[in-house]
Amino acid sequence: ADTPETKHPKKGKEPYGPEATNFAKRYLSNKLVNLKFEKGKRDRYKRILAHVYVNGIHFNKMLIDSGMAKTSFYAPNYDFKEAFKKAENKAIASKTGMWRGK
Q1: CA 4 to CA 87: how far, in whole Å?
Q2: Checking phi first, is residue 98 left (phi over 0); if not, alpha (psi -120 to 50) or beta?
Q3: Minimal CA–CA distance to 74: which of 99, 97, 45, 96?
Q4: pLDDT, tens only, 51-83
Q5: Per-residue b/e over 29-57, b at no fewer than 16 CB within 10 Å?
Q6: What is the pTM assigned to this prediction?
Q7: Cα separation of 3 and 68, whole Å?
């Protein structure tokens, strides 16, 4: 899942960036999370690529379901591609989160 930027040096603050940040803080602050990895553990910028689970819920998918993130895939990590695209299409169709007004 790829959330809109809030502190990017060139892009600045993108629409729904602050909302996505607040969403993550609300669900993840002071919580014990589990990380699950696919084949690739880092992207070309050395950022960690992981699936985040909180209370057994797949947080990455929750972001997409809520319209707080778009799908994003980094080879060779495609285990959830179909589920994430389906969730994104549903969020777009229902104009949820960042898809509102589009």
Answers
A1: 17
A2: alpha
A3: 45
A4: 999 999 999 999 999 999 999 998 899 999 999
A5: eeeeeeeeeeeeeeeeeeeebbbbbeeee
A6: 0.87
A7: 6
